[in-house]
């Protein structure tokens, strides 16, 4: 399909931001106007946080298309790629509504990108131990390759490590990423609550259609409750092919020992000052004894 750009859009593709991620004010104004042309959905979720399910349901609800908005998958952190959005907003590609699912933190440069294009990210709060255990399940479920290096290096001998060592690894090496992820998004959501939609996993478990409705309304693509229920039903039918995780709450706290949970507590609440989100990120439960 032929794509036609005006001169401003063509120049935008090759315009680098400043080192801090900001753009020239005139260019920012242009990007703001461009961003309002077509709504899109941006699930800026942490790994193992129901993102695959919700993005699939959203695609059904808005007749959308999953679009990779980063340079490549498997990197340390997702950083939005400006040419992809220019192509969508100014060139009409994809023709369907863009739906993005990316593991990105709300660092300053990413915030400036979001604001320049008037994007409306959606995040999910979920128990960090539960997500780490789901991540561990994923690593145990197949060969460890760079495609599974989501936000951290996985050693080549991972599959030969014993269970205790594997659990130590995900807590010590991946736990800090989750702490930083929630710290950056917590700050951003407090600063710009109208821009960042914060969902909760407990709500998703009890009524996924209502959570989808909230996410789409925030994105400027509101659908009826019935349409959201139908989209969730369609996504549920695809759960096996898309390797949805078990989604059971409390598995992580029951799996990790007391020392490992204490390490996560320190990361989240001592270093990242996330105490107001304690009920979501570290739900109370009975941990295993330290080994």
Question: What does the model show?
Answer:
- The protein is α/β, with parallel strands linked by helices and 291 residues long.
- The chain has a single domain (7-281), classed as 3-Layer(aba) Sandwich (Rossmann fold), CATH 3.40.50.
- 49% of the residues lie in helices and 7% in strands.
- The protein contains 13 helices and five strands.
- Strands 2-3-1-4-5 form a five-stranded parallel beta sheet, with helices on both faces.
- Helix 4 (82-91) links the parallel strand 2 (64-66) and strand 3.
- The radius of gyration is 20 Å and the shape is globular.
- It starts with 6 loop residues before the first helix and ends in a 10-residue tail after the last helix.
- The model has no long low-confidence stretch (mean pLDDT 90).
In short:
The protein is of the alpha/beta class. Helix content is 49%, strand content 7%. The longest helix has 29 residues, at 163-191.
The CATH topology comes to: Rossmann fold
* Oligomeric state, counting identical vs distinct chains: single chain
Give the biggest beta sheet. Answer: 5 strands, parallel
First-to-last CA distance: 60 Å
Number of DSSP strand runs: 5
State the CATH class. Answer: Alpha Beta
Topology pattern, helix = H, strand = E: HHEHEHEHEHHEHHHHHH
CATH architecture: 3-Layer(aba) Sandwich
- Total of domains: 1
Instruction: Output mean pLDDT.
Output: 90
Annotated CATH homologous superfamily: P-loop containing nucleotide triphosphate hydrolases
Structural class: alpha/beta
Radius of gyration from CA coordinates: 20 Å
Strand content: 5-15%
Number of helices: 13
* CA-based shape: globular
